[in-house]
Please model this.
Amino acid sequence: MRGLLHSWLTELGGLAVLAGDTVRQAFRRPFERSLWIDQLEHLGVQSLTITNVTLLFTGMVLAVQTAYSLSSYGGSSFVGDLLSLAIVRELGPVLTALMVAGRVGAGITAELGSMTVTEQVDALRVLAASPVKKLVVPRVGALVIALPLLTVLADVVGLFGGMLMAVSEIGQSRAYFVSHVLGALFIQDVTSGIGKTFFFAFFIGIIACYNGLNATGGADGVGKATTNTVVTASIAIIVSDFFLTKIFMLF
Model:
């Protein structure tokens, strides 16, 4: 038990050190714009399919389940209200972050882990180049920019899926559903949902880069680091979501 606690504390300390170094290096010249653009395309644009498909069917099944549950109380007309709040405040940000953690987080760890075990990262240090500046900052920065945008689009797609079910299964008109969605949402609901994603993106990026840069033992070590990234990032998203929700509810 003591050894496990020591391992957790060591990893937490390493993550904190890397996070601080990443923030410092992000504001130092040169800004490596080409690397940022490449990572935005790789981490953001290529994640559109998985995030949108996830939220589309989540919105559809949530609309069906909500309508079924509320029909006994004559509340089917409130499907749009409940769906909009559930997706914009919670399901959109969390599910998008989890999908990105699984796809992007694992990819970053595998990529950096391969570079670490083949001594490419050490070669950067020999050339007096900072691995954090060259490898970590573009990936974390691209995630912080891309994840909120992915979440906004995923929210819209999720609500569209709910509208399809409301129109086809419940018999509501599109205008009626949209009016209830817009009537239920306030600016605080949107900002709290989107605001969480900046923290989720930072957690995913730091955890993925830390595990990749500390991978050892060849291909087997890279595989273990990749698995650890997905598990740790997912837990970080779920746990931080609770505390971030409490914080945003104060404003």
The mean pLDDT is 90.
